C-alpha cells in the first residue's frame, strides 16, 4: 500500500464523513432532545436534494438559493409532521415512532418517484455544480474537486454553530431544560411543545441541507437516502446516542475509515462501519461519547 | 339411464370435435398464449426495461394477432416485478408458470435474477427469452434446453468495446465492476478482450459494492495510477453516479478516458450527453439506427410516451420471434416451441442477420460500436450515438468452439 494513496483516501474519506456528520448531527439533536428515533432522516435528505432539483426545474433557481431554501422547506415539512403525527406518539413506546417514520419513508420515496417520472420523465436527475465551484484544485498530493472541499468546510462550520448554540447560548439552555424536565420548564412560562417542534425542524433541516450538498455529487433519485441512513444510524450508535460531539467526530472518522478500507481491501469498505459498531458496543455499550444510562 | 348415456355420448363427441378443431389451428394450453414479462418494475433498472418492456411485449402481441387471424384474442401479456433479486425472481417465475399459466418468460434484467428464473423454468419446461440480463453463463455453464439469450451479452459488450477502445490507443486500463454475477462476468470478458488486442491492465480490477453511490476512492486511485482508460462495468443508476463523479474529479482533463461496459439510452438522458461525450460503448440497436428503426420507435413513443431503449426494443423483437415460433409449431408446448426456435434465421427492425444457435441458444445478431455525441452535434432530442463500427452477427458473440454449453 503506498502512502500517497493512503493519504488521498484519508482526505477523500472526510467528504463522505461530512455527509455522515451532518446527517447524524440532525439525528443526534432530535434524539437527544426529543427521544425520537427518526427513521425518516434518509428520506428527508433525499427530499432536500429533490427540492433543490425541483426548484431549479420549476423556477430556474440555482445552487445557492437552493442551499438556503431547500433546508427551510424540508425543515418546515418536518415541523408539520412533528405537530400532526409524531406528537401523538410521545409517551408511547419508541417502536411506534420507528414504525411511523419507516412508513413515512416508504411513502415519501414512492411519491417522489411518481412525481419525477410524471413531471420530469426521469427516475434519476442530474444536478450541476455551481460554476464557481466546478473544476479541481491541485493539492500537491492529489487533484481534488473544489466542490468537495467546499462541502467539508461548510459542514465543519455548521457543526460548530450547532454545538455552540446548544452548549453555550440561552436558546440552547432552554432546549436542554425543556427536555431534561418539561414540567419545571413549563412552570417558568416556556412553551415546551413549541421548542420541541422547532428543534425537530432544525434537525430535519440539517438532513435537507445534506441533501442539497449531495445533489451535485450523486444522482438525485428517490432511494438515495435509503443506503446512507443505515450507515448514519451506525455512526450515531458508535458516537453515543444523542451526543452531538460524538456524532460529528464519529461521522468524519467513519468516512475516513471506510475510504481507507476501500483502498486496502475494497469488499470490506461497507462492512467496516458495522464491525466497528459491534466492537464499540461490546466495549462501551453507550457509545464512544455517550454517557452511561445512570449518568443522564 | 339411457338418457344419461346419451348425454355422455354427446358430450364426448362434442369434446372430440373441439379437440379436432383446435388441432387444425393450434394446440394451445388453456386456449391462450401467455407471455410473462418478468422484469424490474420499481428499482434501478425499471426505467431502461420495466414498464416499457411490458408495453413493448404487448405491442408485439397486438401486431402478431393482427397479422395472424388464427390467434386473434389468444395472446396475453402480463408484467411481474422481480425487484432484481434472485430469490424473488425464482419465486415469481414458479408462480407465473404454475398459477398464471404463462407459456414463456421474457426480459429478465439483472443476471442473478435471470439465472435463477431460468433454472426454475427449465424444471417446468417453459421457454425463457433473456433480453436485459447480461451474463454469458446463460449460454455457457448454466445453459439449458429452454433458455435463449437475446439482444446482448457480456462477451459481445467486452469484445465490441474492449477491442474498439484498445485499438484506438486506449491500451492501458483500470477497471471497476459491481460485485455480482453480471459485473464479475463482464470484468472477466473485458479483461480478456483488452489483453487479446495487446492492451494491459495497470492494476487488478476492483470490485465495488452493488448498488453503490460513492466511487471517489476508485477515481482517486485511477488518478494516481494514470491508466489511459478508466473502465466502468457498472450499469443503470450506479453508472450515472460513476460518470458524474468521473467528470467531477476532472479525469478527462487529466488524460484518462472513459470505457463503459454497458450503456443504456436512459443513463445518458439522466446525466446529459455531454457528461458521456466521447465515450465508446457497444449496443445491439438504437432508435435512430435507420428508417425502419425510427418507424418502429415512433410507434412505441406514441404508445408509451418515451423513446424506447434498446432493451425495450429487444423485448418486442424477442416476443415477436417467440410468437412466430408458436405459429410455426402450431403449439405453445415448450418443447415444440424450442424446436421451432432452434436454427431459425430472421431479420427484423431490431435483430439483423439474426440466427438462433441450436448448440447454445445464443441469438446472434449484428451489433454496433457507438460513440456518444456531444450535445452540440445532436440533431434532435435523443440523438446521442454516432456509429463507429458494425460487428457482424457471426463475429459479435462467443465463438461456438469456445462455448461451454452442454444440453
UniProtKB/TrEMBL annotation, chain A:
Record's GO cellular component terms: plasma membrane
A Gene Ontology molecular function term of the record: transmembrane transporter activity
Domain of life: Bacteria
InterPro entries: ABC_transp_permease, BCAA_transport_permease
CDD domains, per database record: TM_PBP1_LivH_like
Main location (coarse class): membrane
Pfam families according to UniProt: BPD_transp_2
GO biological process, one term: amino acid transport
Membrane topology: Multi-pass membrane protein
Location of the protein in the cell: Cell membrane
Transmembrane residue ranges: 6-31, 66-86, 147-166, 195-217, 271-291
This protein's UniProt keywords: Amino-acid transport, Cell membrane, Membrane, Transmembrane, Transmembrane helix, Transport
Family according to the record: Belongs to the binding-protein-dependent transport system permease family. LivHM subfamily.
Protein name: Branched-chain amino acid ABC transporter permease
UniProt source species: Deinococcus radiopugnans ATCC 19172
Source lineage: Bacteria, Thermotogati, Deinococcota, Deinococci, Deinococcales
From TrEMBL, chain B:
Entry keywords, A to Z: Signal
Domain called Leucine-binding protein: residue spans: 33-375
Stored InterPro entries: BCAA_transport, Leu-bd, Peripla_BP_I
Residues making up the signal peptide according to the UniProt record: 1-23
Pfam families xref list: Peripla_BP_6 (PF13458)
Family of the protein in this entry: Belongs to the leucine-binding protein family.
This protein's name: ABC transporter substrate-binding protein
